[in-house]
Write a structure and sequence with these properties.
Blueprint: E1 14-20, E2 23-28, E3 37-40, E4 43-45, E5 48-50, E6 53-55, E7 69-71, E8 74-79, E9 82-88, E10 95-99, H1 105-108, E11 118-122, E12 125-129, E13 135-139, E14 145-146, E15 156-157, E16 159-163, E17 170-174, E18 177-181
Length: 187
């Protein structure tokens, strides 16, 4: 109860967490003087368990606290510039951020209430609902679209779709079934 860690500067809010291999990624809001990603690992120090944290990547901070999820093993979160993944350079094992929503970005990035977006993973897909009834979907089961000159293998995007008139404000994946809740309390 007396052990805690400050992650970056106090003025930039922690927005969420993602599992990245054996590490925990701490994703912060976009800030001008702070990194947006930190990695927490586990180790020992003087025969005691320790949880060191190191600065990861600066750049794309999260915009919604409820838009964190994975497609298979690809950790995703929403930024003002689209849905980004935390990827790794195969050679150096350094973490980088990669846009995964290029096909959705022209419409997605113009949404008025990105901070209220809600995501879930279901059946190999990342579903992202907006307050206006729009749902953006990235399908991890379909073939990926690789970008030219991508040396790390991380430069790809998912096949993407969007649905209209789906008033999902929360999600509940339950095996083969997917439920969603509405603002007026219906399931």
């Amino acid at each position: 109860d007396t052990g805690y860690t400050r992650v970056g500067t106090a003025g930039t809010e922690i927005m969420g967490y993602l599992q990245v291999g054996t590490a925990q990624a701490v994703v912060k809001a976009e800030g001008s003087q702070d990194a947006s990603l930190y990695l927490r690992t586990v180790g020992t120090l003087n025969d005691l368990t320790a949880f060191p944290i190191k600065q990861g990547v600066s750049g794309q901070g999260a915009i919604s606290k409820r838009a964190f999820s994975n497609i298979l093993d690809d950790p995703l979160y929403l930024t003002r510039n689209g849905v980004f993944a935390i990827s790794s350079n195969i050679v150096t094992e350094q973490r980088t951020l990669a846009n995964r929503s290029r096909f959705l970005d022209p419409k997605l990035t113009r949404e008025a209430n990105l901070k209220d977006a809600v995501a879930c993973s279901w059946n190999g897909m990342y579903l992202l609902s907006m307050t206006d009834g729009t749902v953006y979907i990235m399908d991890g089961k379909q073939e990926k679209s690789y970008q030219e000159n991508s040396l790390t293998g991380a430069g790809y995007n998912y096949e993407a779709y969007h649905w209209n008139n789906m008033p999902a404000t929360c999600w509940l994946p339950d095996g083969a079934e997917l439920y969603f809740g509405t603002a007026d309390g219906r399931i």
